[in-house]
Amino acid sequence: MFSRRRKRPCIYMMASARDGVIYIGVTSNLVGRVSLHKQDLVEGFTKRYAVHRLVYYEMHETMPDAINRETRLKKWKRAWKVRLIEQMNPEWLDLFDEKNGVIREGPADLTRRQD
Description:
The protein is of the alpha+beta class. It has helices at 30-38, 45-48, 63-75, 78-88, 107-114, and strands at 10-15, 22-27, 53-59, 96-97, 102-103. The longest helix is centred in the middle third of the chain and has 13 residues, at 63-75.
């Protein structure tokens, strides 16, 4: 888990529901950006299609690395994106804990940590 204070470049995927509309973005403040999406404060795609569930994220060392990854992922077929989400988060759980304002690790992250 990490909180608002931790800023690091990352890509993230949000969905309207399990197997719903998928949005891919990049940010250096994941908690802040997801919070904005959930409150519909980001005009455009996520607001129009009610995309409020954080289902996947990847942390990167630099913003150019994150932007590169985002660009590549946006070109992927939907099935590949779904497979990537389900490797980390098979149930498409919302990884943003609104109550505490933190990002949870995906179930696959927790499994890897136990190994």
